[in-house]
């Protein structure tokens, strides 16, 4: 019976091992599924998010062609807006689930102002525009990420259906002709490992049963019947040649049988171990199960809320590009290059600094654009243009923080830094929306705030001029406003110094006025807003004696900007202030609070 069970174990083991091996070889399906994309001669290929999510799981983009191949991804609406003035191949998913490629013709032309100057930084090469609207896609601020490789580009992706992928070369030559998207297909064989292991165990059991069967047969033999008388055995002379041929060793056969049994069992175990060593993790069932996600705080997005203009990683990359371009412009004192990444009050102050550094050898440069540690990103929630993004950057070395506003005019323009200030040491920021939710932009004439953004600069300028006597003084928080205190102290100090030497022949007056730059405002969670405004401080020096003249010999800045050493009519010197305020919403008991400020020379002129 042992032999029967041994044979049954051998047969079942063979079936199980064969089945396990077959699952990993002939019966195992393909590991990936690939969709090939056919394209014509268009310079761009736009692969829609529906195509990328045709199958679940991550995607792998492969593009092959001559030269350097470019690929990027971003929000589908943003990428279509960037391609609105160009011909491209739109790759979508048809109603039957098949990949469809459609020629798309230009719909719009970029604004004239979106074209950069010939001296634009290499980091802004994406904005090079021709009459046929062909431009390099490299470095556009709209992309969430981008890739470049020579000859063959392979990019692993995991994108939702709201994003698309752009494939191109240089924006002028045809896009790569060989493009495909592949997905990993689930071809796990969770029972291959158990079958092979179980078969190996059964094979060992069968061998043991077979050995036990042989042993049982040998032991079950009864006593032998005596045979015919044997002749008398003569003694064997060991000295005779070949006498050892008649010697029989009782232990020799036992050792031989033991070696044969060992030889039988060891190969079986070795074969099973070799088979199991080739089984990967997907050859075994997963009994652990999926981890239970921990609950997180729910984020309520207002109905109809638009997507945020940028992500945190995108904002960090944009700030780095701005800082690099501005650093190059500062080194060359190139206002045109600076204008490719700066705008508004920031650009005006930089242009003045370049002029002063050109006329005064030891005049200091303005501080570099900070990018060290991005603490806060508040993008505008919008799907059109223009767009605004607020950021707060910490500087661990100086133990300070900078607050800034970036603006993008249209889909083809780079983001530009429009406002930049230093936060006060004890500044407490209001509650802001998460960066993945975004905030709405507050219009300049909004009536939902205690003061409209377009009125804020003039009101605060009046407070600087009149102090507590201003009609607007009660609407602003005075405690902790170091900027207002420093302006008042500086004016008094300069006036006292001027009166000691020139009070009898001249006059010095100060005035703050609303600047020429438009305010920018983003909403906070308490129905308030963070508002950035521009205020100008104008110092006027006039002679009060008909025979007196105002000399600028001791003021190299005024002499350089005004282009004159003296004047019988006097001089005006203008400083530009960039100010950030928190403005509460209507019905709030809070006052308007200054968050950050900066002040730099803007201009100096001879009074006509």
Cα distance, first to last residue? 124 Å
Overall pLDDT, averaged?
83
Strand content: 25-35%
Q: What kind of assembly state do the chains in view correspond to?
A: single chain
The structure class reads alpha+beta
Bin the helical content: 25-40%
Name the helix and strand elements from N-terminus to C-terminus, one letter apiece: HEEHEHEEEEEHHHHHEEEEHHEEEEHEEE
Rg over CA atoms: 42 Å
Overall, the morphology is: elongated
Number of domains: 2
Low-confidence stretches: 111-132, 240-250, 256-266
Helix tally equals 11
Number of strands: 19
Biased composition (Low complexity): 104-134
Pfam families: DUF8094
Domain DUF8094: 308-604
Transmembrane segments: 191-212, 262-284
Structure description:
The protein is of the alpha+beta class and 608 residues long. The protein is built from eleven helices and 19 strands. It has helices spanning 2-24, 49-52, 76-82, 192-219, 250-277, 312-332, 335-338, 344-359, 453-466, 482-502, 556-562; strands at 32-37, 44-47, 59-75, 88-93, 99-104, 145-157, 163-168, 178-184, 373-379, 387-395, 400-408, 416-423, 506-514, 520-523, 529-543, 550-551, 566-567, 571-583, 593-606. The strands form three sheets. Strands 9, 10, 11, 12, 13, 14, 15, 18 and 19 form a nine-stranded antiparallel sheet that branches. α1 (2-24) runs antiparallel to α4 (192-219) and α4 packs antiparallel against α5 (250-277). The longest helix is centred in the middle third of the chain and has 28 residues, at 192-219. The radius of gyration is 42 Å and the shape is elongated. The model is unreliable at 111-132, 240-250 and 256-266 (pLDDT under 50).
């Amino acid at each position: 019976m042992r032999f029967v069970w041994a044979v049954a174990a051998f047969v079942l083991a063979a079936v199980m091992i064969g089945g396990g091996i077959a699952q990993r070889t002939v019966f195992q399906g393909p590991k990936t599924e690939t969709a090939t994309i056919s394209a014509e001669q268009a310079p761009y290929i736009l692969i829609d998010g529906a195509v990328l999510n045709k199958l679940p799981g991550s995607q792998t983009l492969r593009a092959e062609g001559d030269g350097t191949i470019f690929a990027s991804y971003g929000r589908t609406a943003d990428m279509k807006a960037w391609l609105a003035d160009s011909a491209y191949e739109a790759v979508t998913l048809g109603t039957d689930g098949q990949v469809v490629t459609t020629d798309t013709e230009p719909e719009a032309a970029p604004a004239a102002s979106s074209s950069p100057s010939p001296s634009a930084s290499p980091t802004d090469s994406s904005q090079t525009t021709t009459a046929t609207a062909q431009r390099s896609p490299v470095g556009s601020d709209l992309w969430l990420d981008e890739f470049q490789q020579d000859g063959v580009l392979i990019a692993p992706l995991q994108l939702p259906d709201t994003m698309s992928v752009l494939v191109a070369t240089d924006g002028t030559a045809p896009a790569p002709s060989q493009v495909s998207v592949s997905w990993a297909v689930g071809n796990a064989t969770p029972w291959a490992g158990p079958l092979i292991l179980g078969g190996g165990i059964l094979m060992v059991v069968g061998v043991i049963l077979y050995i036990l069967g042989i042993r049982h047969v040998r032991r079950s033999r009864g006593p032998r019947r005596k045979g015919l008388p044997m002749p008398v055995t003569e003694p064997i002379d060991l000295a005779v040649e070949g006498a050892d041929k008649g010697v029989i060793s009782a232990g020799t056969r036992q050792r031989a049988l033991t070696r044969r049994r060992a030889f039988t069992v060891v190969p079986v175990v070795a074969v099973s171990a070799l088979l199991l060593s080739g089984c990967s993790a997907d050859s075994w069932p997963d009994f652990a199960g999926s981890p239970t996600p921990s609950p997180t705080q729910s984020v309520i997005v207002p109905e109809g809320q638009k997507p945020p203009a940028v992500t945190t990683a995108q904002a960090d990359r944009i700030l780095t590009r701005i800082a690099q371009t501005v650093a190059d412009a500062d080194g060359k004192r190139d206002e045109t290059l600076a204008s490719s990444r700066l705008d508004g009050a920031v650009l005006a102050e930089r242009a003045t600094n370049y002029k002063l550094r050109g006329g005064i050898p030891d005049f200091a440069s303005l501080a570099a654009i900070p990018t060290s540690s991005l603490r806060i990103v508040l993008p505008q929630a919008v799907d059109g243009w223009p767009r605004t993004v607020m950021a707060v950057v910490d500087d661990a070395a100086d133990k300070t923080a900078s607050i800034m506003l970036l603006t993008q005019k249209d889909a083809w323009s780079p983001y530009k830094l429009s406002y930049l200030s230093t936060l006060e040491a004890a500044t407490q920021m209001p509650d802001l929306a998460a960066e993945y939710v975004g905030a709405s932009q507050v219009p300049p004439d909004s009536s939902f705030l205690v003061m409209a953004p377009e009125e804020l600069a003039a009101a605060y300028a009046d407070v600087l001029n009149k102090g507590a006597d201003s009609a607007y003084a009660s609407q602003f928080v005075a405690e902790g406003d170091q900027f207002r205190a420093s302006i008042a102290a500086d004016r008094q100090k300069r006036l006292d110094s001027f009166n000691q030497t020139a009070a009898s022949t001249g006059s010095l007056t100060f005035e703050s006025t609303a600047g020429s730059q438009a305010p920018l405002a983003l909403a906070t969670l308490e129905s308030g807003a963070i508002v950035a405004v521009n205020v100008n401080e104008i110092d006027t020096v006039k002679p009060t004696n008909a025979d007196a003249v105002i000399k600028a010999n001791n003021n190299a800045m005024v002499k350089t900007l005004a282009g004159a050493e003296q004047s019988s009519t006097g001089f005006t010197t203008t400083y530009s202030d960039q100010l950030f305020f928190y403005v509460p919403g209507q019905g709030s008991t809070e006052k308007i609070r200054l968050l950050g400020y900066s002040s730099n020379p803007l201009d100096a002129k001879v009074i006509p």
